[in-house]
Design goal:
751 residues, alpha+beta, Arc Repressor Mutant, subunit A, OB fold (Dihydrolipoamide Acetyltransferase, E2P), 6 domains, five-stranded antiparallel beta sheet, 27% strand, globular, disordered C terminus, Ribonuclease R, RNA-binding, RNase_B_OB_dom, cytoplasm
Length: 751
C-alpha cells in the first residue's frame, strides 16, 4: 500500500480526539507498513503539520483536543521567549530549552501549564511551528575555511544561517546581505539560505538604513502604477474643489513645525471672544485625494504610518502628495477639514463644529521662532511675519489653560528628554544631544489633543462605528510590585485595591522630579503601562485621562487618521440628514473592516517604532566607537546584579560598568535598596550617584557599550535624570522631524 501524508492529515481532521499510533496503524493496513507510517508521521511532526502528544498520540495543531494554544513567539536575545495567545489571556513564558527551533516572530503552537518556579505564571514549550515569520533575513556575511555563514542583524533570531558556496552569489566577507531561507533548522542542524541581495559595507550610512529597512520588512518603494496615480493628482485646487467648503482663507492661520519638516498637515488660528477663545485646527484633507480602494489607499494601508530615520523619511504617501497638494504649504490654497472650538478660561469646551474648508496659511513657522516670541519675548524673530506675534501670545495663553485643565483631570505628563541625532554632510553622526521640548511644542500638542478629543466625541455621539486611540489601565500586578519597589526610596503610589488613578501616577512623577531617583520612578511607571493602540471599541485613554479619544490630526502620515476623516464626513452627513445610499454603503464598508484595520495599523505603528529606535541605537554605538579611551562624566542610571548602567552627561548615551571591572572590592547586589555594596569597604553604588567613566569597548552587533568606572561620588546632587523610551511609549524624535509624543502628546504622533 502506497501511503500519502494527505491521507494521514485527512484522518486526523475527521477525529474529535487524538489518535494513538496503534490506531493510525490499524487504519492504514497494519504492521507491515509500520516503518513507512512512522517515517511519514515523524516528518509531519517535524514540519509542524501534526502534533505528537503524550502517550504516542497524534492530532492536528490548534484542535480542541491538542491542549495547545497558538500565537506569535517573541524571543529575547538571551534565548528565552514569550508567546502571546491569539485567543487572548496571559503571555506564556518559553524557556530556551523549550523553543524547539522556533525563530523570533514565528507563529507557533504551545502547550502551557502553571509553573511552580514562576509563582503560578504560565510556562510552556513549542510543540509545532505553524508559520515562519520571515523567509528573508538580513545580516553580515562571515566567511571562513569551513564556509560562509550569515549572522542576523536581528539578535533575537538567536542562530546563524549557513550559506553554501554556490549560494554566496558574489558577496564577500563582512558585507551586509539579504538571504532567502532555503532550509529551516531541524534538530541540531542550523538553517540555510542563499544570498539574494548585497547591501554593501556596514559602515556606509546608506547601508545602515537599508539594513534596518529589510530587518523590519518596511515597504520602502512605491510601485510605478501607484506613483502614476499620485502623479495624476492636481498641483493646485480648482473651483470645483471649493464646493460646499467653508472659506477660511482670510483667517490668519499658521503652521508650526520643525526646521526641516516638509509635510505640514495641521494649521492653527485663534481669536479671542470676550474672555473666551475660539480655536481653529485645520487638517490636510487627504481623504479628498485618496479614494477608498485606490492603489494609493491600498499602499497607505499596507504601510500604516510614515517612518522617520535620522536622515530620511519613508512616507506613507508619495511625496507628490505628502509634500505637495496635501501639505499645508504657506500662501497656497489648500483643502482642509476643520475643527472649530470655543473654550472658556477654565479650558472647558463650550462649542465645537466640524466642516470641510479651504485655508491659505499665512506663514510656515518653526518651534524655534515661536519659542523666541512666546517665551523669550523677541517679536523681531518673526521678521516679515511680525504681525502674527499677538496671535501667538493668545495661543500661548490658551495652551497653558488647556494644559492646566488636563493636569487637573489627571492626565499623565512624562516630560522626558530623548536623543537627537546630529548628522554631518557625509551622513556620519557628529553629536547626540537631548532633544528640546519647549512651550512652542506644547502649544501645538495641546491644540491637537483638543481637536482629537472633540472629533472623537462628535462622531461617537452620532452612534456610528469608529476607530479610537485607546490606552488601557496599567497591569495591576506590575503596579503593586512597583509600589513596593519604590517604598525604600521614600515614594508612595496611592492605589485603590489593585487599581490606580492617572492623577496618582502624575503625583508620583511630580514628587520624583529633580531627585536622583527620577529616572527610576519614570522608567518604572512606564514599564507598568500598557501600550496605546487603535481599537474599534472605546476603551478610553488612561494616560490622557480621556473618556473618548482618537487620532484626527495627521492623515498625511497615519492611516487611522485617514479613516477618521472619512468617518467624520459621514457623521456630518448623518447629523444633517443628508447621508444618501452611497454614503450608507460606504459607512457599512468601513464599519465592517474597523477591527481589522485597528489591529493592522497598531502593528504597523509598533514596527515603525522598533525600526526608528533600532537605527538610533545603532547611531549611538557607532558614534561611541570613536570615543574609545575617552572619559566622560555621568551618573548611575540603573543597577543590576551584573553591574550598573551609567548615563553620560555630555552625550545622551548609556553604557554598562560590568561587575567584573570593579577591581577595588567584591560587590554584592542589594536588590532591596537597588545598589551595589562593597563587601570589604562598604562602598555603595546607587542610582543617581555622579560617576566618571572611560569607554573601553563598543559592540554594534551586540548593541552594547562598555565602561569602566574611573571615579565615583556618593555625594548626591539634584539631577533631572532622563530615560530612554520603552515599548510602552512611542517613537524617538529625530533631528529635522517634528518631535513625537512621549509621555505628553509631542505633536500627537503616538498618543
Amino acid at each position: 500500500m502506497l501511503l500519502h501524508k494527505k491521507e494521514i492529515l485527512n484522518l486526523l481532521a475527521e477525529e474529535t480526539e487524538a489518535l494513538h499510533f496503534a490506531s493510525l496503524l490499524r487504519a492504514f493496513g497494519g504492521r507491515h507498513i509500520k516503518n513507512d507510517l512512522k517515517e511519514l508521521v515523524d516528518d509531519l511532526v517535524r514540519n509542524g503539520e501534526v502534533l505528537r502528544l503524550r502517550g504516542n498520540r497524534y492530532t492536528l495543531p490548534g484542535t480542541d483536543n491538542s491542549g495547545t494554544v497558538q500565537g506569535s513567539i517573541s524571543i529575547h536575545r538571551d534565548g528565552y521567549g514569550f508567546v502571546k495567545p491569539e485567543s487572548g489571556g496571559e503571555d506564556i513564558f518559553i524557556p530556551g530549552k523549550n523553543i524547539n527551533n522556533a525563530l523570533h516572530g514565528d507563529k507557533v503552537s504551545v502547550r502551557a501549564e502553571k509553573s511552580r518556579s514562576q509563582r503560578g505564571k504560565l510556562e510552556g514549550r513549542v510543540v509545532a511551528i505553524l508559520e515562519r515569520a520571515n523567509s528573508r533575513i538580513v545580516g553580515r556575511l562571515q566567511q571562513s575555511k569551513r564556509g560562509a555563514t550569515l549572522v542576523p542583524e536581528e539578535l533575537r533570531i538567536g542562530t546563524f544561517f549557513t550559506v553554501p558556496g554556490n549560494a554566496v552569489n558574489g558577496a564577500v566577507d563582512g558585507q551586509q546581505v539579504v538571504i532567502e531561507v532555503t532550509a529551516w533548522p531541524v534538530g541540531g542542524r542550523p538553517p540555510e539560505g542563499k544570498v539574494v541581495e548585497i547591501l554593501g559595507w556596514p559602515d556606509d550610512p546608506d547601508v545602515e538604513v537599508q539594513t534596518v529597512i529589510r530587518k523590519f520588512a518596511l515597504p520602502h518603494s512605491f510601485e510605478p502604477e501607484t506613483l502614476a496615480e499620485a502623479q495624476a493628482a492636481p498641483a493646485q485646487i480648482s473651483k470645483d474643489d471649493l464646493k460646499d467648503r467653508v472659506d477660511l482663507r482670510k483667517l490668519p492661520t499658521v503652521t508650526i513645525d520643525g526646521e526641516t519638516a516638509k509635510d505640514f498637515d495641521d494649521a492653527v488660528a485663534i481669536r479671542p471672544e470676550g474672555r473666551n477663545f475660539r480655536l481653529w485646527v485645520s487638517i490636510a484633507d487627504v481623504s479628498h485625494y485618496i479614494k477608498p480602494g485606490s492603489l494609493l489607499d491600498r499602499e497607505a494601508y499596507l504601510r500604516g504610518t510614515s517612518v522617520y530615520f535620522p536622515d530620511r523619511c519613508i512616507p506613507m504617501l508619495p511625496e507628490r502628495l505628502s509634500n505637495g497638494i496635501c501639505s499645508l504649504n504657506p500662501r497656497l490654497d489648500r483643502l482642509t477639514m476643520t475643527a472649530e472650538m470655543l473654550f472658556d478660561q477654565q479650558g472647558t469646551m463650550l462649542e465645537s463644529s466640524f466642516y470641510p474648508s479651504v485655508i491659505k496659511s499665512d506663514a510656515r513657522l518653526t518651534y524655534t521662532k515661536v519659542k523666541q516670541v512666546i517665551v523669550d519675548g523677541d517679536e523681531k524673530a518673526l521678521e516679515e511675519d511680525r504681525a502674527l506675534a499677538p496671535m501667538l501670545l493668545q495661543m500661548k495663553e490658551l495652551a497653558l489653560i488647556l494644559q492646566a485643565m488636563r493636569k487637573q483631570r489627571g492626565s499623565i505628563d512624562f516630560d522626558l528628554p530623548e536623543p537627537e541625532i546630529i548628522l554631518g554632510l557625509t551622513g556620519q553622526t557628529e553629536a547626540i544631544i537631548k532633544s528640546e521640548r519647549n512651550l512652542a511644542h506644547q502649544l501645538i500638542e495641546e491644540f491637537m489633543l483638543a481637536a482629537n478629543e472633540a472629533v472623537a466625541r462628535f462622531v461617537t455621539a452620532q452612534e456610528m462605528a469608529f476607530i479610537y486611540r485607546i490606552h488601557e489601565p496599567p497591569d495591576p500586578t506590575r503596579l503593586t510590585a512597583f509600589r513596593d519597589f519604590i517604598l525604600p526610596f521614600g515614594f508612595t503610589l496611592e492605589m485603590k485595591g489593585d487599581q490606580v488613578e492617572p492623577s496618582a501616577m502624575q503625583q508620583l512623577i511630580t514628587d520624583a522630579e529633580g531627585k536622583p531617583e527620577e529616572r527610576l520612578v519614570n522608567y518604572g511607571l512606564l514599564r507598568c503601562m500598557k501600550q496605546a493602540r487603535y481599537a474599534a471599541e472605546n476603551l478610553k485613554h488612561f494616560g490622557l485621562a480621556s473618556s473618548c479619544y482618537t487620532h484626527f490630526t495627521s492623515p498625511i502620515r497615519r492611516y487611522p487618521d485617514l479613516i477618521v476623516h472619512r468617518l467624520l464626513r459621514l457623521a456630518l452627513d448623518r447629523k444633517a440628514g443628508t447621508l444618501d445610499k452611497k454614503g450608507q454603503r460606504e459607512l457599512e464598508r468601513i464599519s465592517s473592516t474597523l477591527s481589522e484595520a485597528a489591529e493592522h495599523t497598531s502593528t504597523r505603528e509598533r514596527v515603525a517604532m522598533e525600526a526608528e529606535r533600532d537605527i538610533v541605537e545603532l547611531k549611538k554605538l557607532q558614534f561611541m566607537q570613536g570615543k574609545i579611551g575617552q572619559e566622560f562624566d555621568g551618573f548611575i542610571a540603573g543597577v543590576t546584579g551584573f553591574g550598573c548602567f551609567v548615563e553620560l552627561s555630555e552625550v545622551f548615551v548609556e553604557g554598562l560598568v560590568h561587575l567584573s571591572t570593579l577591581s577595588d572590592d567584591l560587590y554584592s547586589f542589594d536588590e532591596q535598596n537597588h545598589s551595589l555594596v562593597g563587601r570589604r569597604t562598604g562602598r555603595t553604588l546607587r542610582i543617581g550617584d555622579p560617576a566618571r567613566v572611560r569607554v573601553v569597548a563598543v559592540n554594534p552587533q551586540a548593541r552594547r557599550i562598555e565602561f569602566v568606572l574611573e571615579s565615583h561620588s556618593t555625594v548626591r546632587r539634584d539631577v533631572t535624570i532622563a530615560t530612554t523610551t520603552t515599548e510602552e511609549y512611542p517613537r524617538i524624535p529625530i533631528r529635522g522631524k517634528r518631535p513625537v509624543l512621549k509621555g505628553t502628546p509631542n505633536g500627537n504622533r503616538r498618543r
